[in-house]
Design brief:
170 residues, YceD family protein, single chain, 2 domains, YceD, 35% strand, 5 helices, 10 strands, six-stranded mixed sheet, alpha+beta, two-stranded antiparallel ribbon
């Protein structure tokens, strides 16, 4: 997923078609919440002009993340639509709002952009369907309870007050 400017210029007339599977296991070292990640499928097209190489991509795969409640493994499938543009000519000018990457060593490398997009797509938290897991349900001074349990439970200090109002209503 790396091309020189000369390679891209030779593909200017017919364009570039991508359909590759790449290994991005190094993302596990970058983000410790990613426990596992499958090979990522990259599909798309590239259009090349004299000043700009623009790629329209669909990045898809599956990553395994920890459940926010139980710490169980949760498989999270993702599909990302992205447009990445690279400046091929040093004399080309673009607006500050345009997201155009500058070249390093006169090569276009899509892999850093793909890794960045995957990390940006990772959700802040995911939840498992399993109610049990390695995470504790209670600790010193706290306990995990469902919302319904909180509403039905009456504070023992107010139990006598509740009885008083029930007697007055009758």
């Amino acid at each position: 997923m790396k091309w020189s400017i000369q390679q891209l210029q030779s593909l200017k007339d017919e364009g570039l078609h991508l359909n590759e599977s790449v290994d991005v296991q190094d993302l596990k070292a970058t983000d410790r919440e990613i426990r596992e990640i499958s090979d990522v499928r990259i599909q798309g097209t590239g259009s090349i002009s004299r000043e700009l190489a623009s790629f329209t991509l669909t990045i898809s795969g599956t990553m395994t993340l920890p459940c926010a409640r139980t710490l169980n493994d949760v498989e999270y499938p993702f599909s990302i639509d992205a447009v990445e543009s690279f400046q091929l000519s040093e004399w080309a000018t673009f607006d500050k709002d345009d997201d155009v990457h500058e070249l390093t060593n006169n090569t276009v490398d899509l892999m850093p952009c793909v890794r960045e997009r995957i990390l940006l797509e990772k959700p802040l938290r995911v939840f498992s369907d399993k109610p049990e897991g390695p995470a504790p349900k209670k600790g010193d001074g706290w306990e995990l309870r469902a919302e319904e349990e909180k509403q039905q439970k009456v504070d023992p200090r107010l139990a006598k007050l509740e009885k008083y109002f029930k007697n007055n209503d009758e």
